[in-house]
Structures are given as C-alpha cells and as structure tokens.
Amino acid sequence: TEKAHDAIVIGAGAAGLMAAITAAQRGLRVLVVDHANKVGKKILMSGGGRCNFTNTGTTPAQYLSANPHFCKSALARYTPWHFIELVERHRIAYHEKELGQLFCDESSKLIVKMLLDECATAGVEVRTQCTIERVEHLDDGSFRLHTAQGRLVTPSLVIASGGLSIPSMGASGFGYTLAKQFGHEVLPTRAGLVPLTLTGKHAERLQDLAGVSLPVEARCNDTSFRNFMLVTHRGISGPSILQVSSYWQPGDDLRLDLLPGIDAEAQLREWQATRRDAELKTLLAEVLPKRFAQRLCEHWIASKPLRQYTPPELRGIADLLSSWPLIASGTEGYRTAEVTLGGVDSDGLSSTTMMSRHVPGLYFIGEVVDVTGWLGGYNFQWAWASGHAAGTALAA
Ligand code: FAD
Questions:
Q1: What percent of the chain has pLDDT over 70?
Q2: Last residue of a domain, one of 310, 331, 352
Q3: Do 270 and 155 fall into the same domain?
Q4: Rounded to the nearest 5 degrees, what angle is found at the Cα of 383, between the Cα atoms of 381 and 389?
Q5: Is 40 found in the same domain as 175?
Q6: What is the value of pTM for the model shown?
Q7: Nearest to 126 by CA among 53, 37, 44, 42
Q8: In a domain, 45, yes or no
Q9: 264 ligand 1 Cβ < 6 A
Q10: Ligand 1: centre distance to CA 256 (Å)
Q11: What is the CATH number of the domain that holds 25?
Q12: Residues in contact with 198: Cβ distance below 8 Å, sequence separation at least 6, in sequence order
C-alpha cells in the first residue's frame, strides 16, 4: 500500500487539476487519479474546441443550486481575473466572444497544457487509466483507495469526478455513489444546458426548418434568456434554449418572444398605418427568417393584407409573437448536455473549504456538487474557484 501522498484527487478535470496545483504549490504531495486515458477531456471539447474558460461578468446569480448562497465564498476568493492572470502568464491568446465570455484564440489544448505544466512545476503526480474500485474509511480517519493500479492511503481525499454529461467522455456517477457511501445527500440529477425535444404538431410543423436560427427571448419559470434559437431535427437548441433548459422540467410552460426588443403590437399597428396593402407574411419575413415567417402563417397566424385586421385580431397576433407557447416533450439528455444539474447537496459541505461536514478530510468540488452555471464560461469558473478553495484548505 502506497502512503506517499498528503492528498489524493479523484478526477483530472478542471476542478481536480486546479485543486491539486493549488495544494502542491503550498507544499503538499498531491496525486491525481483518473480512469480516462488522458486528462481534461471535457476541457478539450469545450467551447467548440476553443474552451470558454471563464466569464468576466461572473456573479453568484448565474448559478443554480438548492442553496444559492453556497457558491459565493469560493467565487469571491478566486475570480475570473485570477484565472485570466494564469492564462496570460502562460501567454495563451484569448478574446471575448460576447457577454463576457472568454475563449482561446487557438485551441483548448493550450488550457490543458497550461494546467499540466503547472502540475509539473508544483510537483503534482497525475495517473491516468486508474480505475477506483472502492474507497474505505479507516479507523484513523484516513482513506484507502483500491485501484486498478494497487492500493493507496491518504489523509485527504478530493472528489472531482464531475457530472453525468457526455458518458462517452468518461463521465460517471462515481462521485454521487461515493457521497452517499459517506452519508451525504445527493439531490436529484438531470441534464442541463441541453437541447429540448418537441413532439406532436410543433415537431411536425418545424422539423423541415432544421438549421433555421433566429434571435428570441426564451422564458420559463420567471427566468428569461435573449439570444439565438436554432431549430433542429428533433426540436430546438441554440444558446437561448440551452440556457432556459436548465430551468425547464417536463410539463413547465415555455414561451418564446419571437421579436425580442420589439413591441409587437406597436409594430403591427405601424404596419397597418403605413403598409396597409402588404400581407402579414411578407412583413413578418422582414423581421424573421423567411421560411420561419411563412411557417408561422401556415399554422399559427392567418395572413392577410394588414388593413383587414381588426384591433383585437392584431392584439392576438402580437400576443402570439411575443409569447409563443412551445410544448417541449423532453431534453436530449446526458448524451449532449453540457452539464448536470443537482448532485452532492451543498448543505453537507463547508462553503469556504468544500470539506464534508460529516467526514473530515473528504472534499467535493466542481460539477459533482449541486452548483450549476449558465452557459458562457461559468461552469469552468466554478470548477476553478471550488478547486482553489479546496486546494487552499488542504494546505492550511
Ligand atoms: P470534469 O471536467 O468532467 O472532470 C471529471 C474527471 O473525472 C474526468 O477527467 C473524468 O474522466 C474523471 N472521472 C469520472 N469518473 C471517474 C471515476 N469513476 N474514476 C476516476 N476518474 C473519474 N463549461 C464552460 O464553462 N465553458 C465551456 O466552454 C464549456 N463547454 C462545454 C462543452 C461540452 C461539450 C461539455 C460537455 C461541457 C462544457 N462545459 C463548459 C462544462 C464544463 O466542461 C464542466 O462543467 C467542467 O468540465 C466540470 O469540471 P469538473 O472538473 O468538475 O469535471
């Protein structure tokens, strides 16, 4: 049995590597183990291969959690600017895409390389293809890991094994099972930042529009996101839909404002005053993608010359355009979801150290915890911040 390490981190993803680097820089001998054949697979595939590594506008308001206060301390102590400083020190070129989202100019490989270089400098040992068969809690409070590569004993154990999204990339329910083994509550998990599927008449009417994209404001459960929506073969996607999907559950009312930022009724009245003889579908095609406008007028709105509409009819059309009800049948699930909502209940953890309240020396960080960010670099920022909090606490 190996006892050479002050701390072992399970999961060589964003959170685990950050925790390991932070603790090792403070003098600890840290080992990171991962069952995958290489580290940081999700970092590599993130942001379309360019890794949206943080968001300069990060605040606790962009996170979903049963306890919305839990993420505050870690986010305040390790900010986007700390990570940007690291990126700049490694001379990685980056740019803001929109809404504070920072991406690598070249490739997300540079972020993984940066983390591995930091690991090497700090003396972190990383072992891949190391499956953990089980974890025992010993009488002296330490942890014994039975792995495919032998037994390991450590006084501190950090669980950074991530969520359930993209099983083909090594995602597993390991962290949840282990949390339960150690007496932690695990809140129900579901796919987040995920395309929604449609069935019935919406699906039939929209299916052949796959590929059409338009700006909308998607609204669900008092939360709204203004950005693009994309019609897919199975339903709807695009940033506004991915964002709102984290707030949607089967049966919930979902509405789309198809003319975000435009007062639909005022627009219709203006058309009625100035372009009386034009047909509604022609005018709608000036403010919506043409095929989408046509489809709306085939199935949802009776198109005729503007002068023929009565005021109540115009009001009805305005309501439909500004609050189009869509009945989603489900999500595409973990296969394509960017994140997993729910997870290890933060009530069982210290918000300053990420350490278990029940089991001293046991930590949970990153996506395995019930903290889920919006689309736009917030999930990595949580991984860095929670990893940093645990790494600091380990060495304290
Ligand atoms: P992960 O990065 O998932 O790391 C977990 C590690 O644990 C993995 O290496 C895994 O192999 C290992 N592991 C799992 N189970 C075991 C086990 N049983 N034994 C040993 N090891 C195990 N977020 C952003 O902020 N910006 C983006 O641009 C972005 N793009 C994304 C694109 C895609 C396609 C996906 C799927 C997600 C994206 N995300 C993005 C979300 C982000 O990748 C995650 O929130 C983040 O990686 C979570 O970090 P983590 O360290 O907690 O988990």
A1: 100
A2: 331
A3: no
A4: 100
A5: yes
A6: 0.97
A7: 37
A8: yes
A9: no
A10: 30
A11: 3.50.50.60
A12: 206, 234, 235, 236, 326, 327, 328, 329
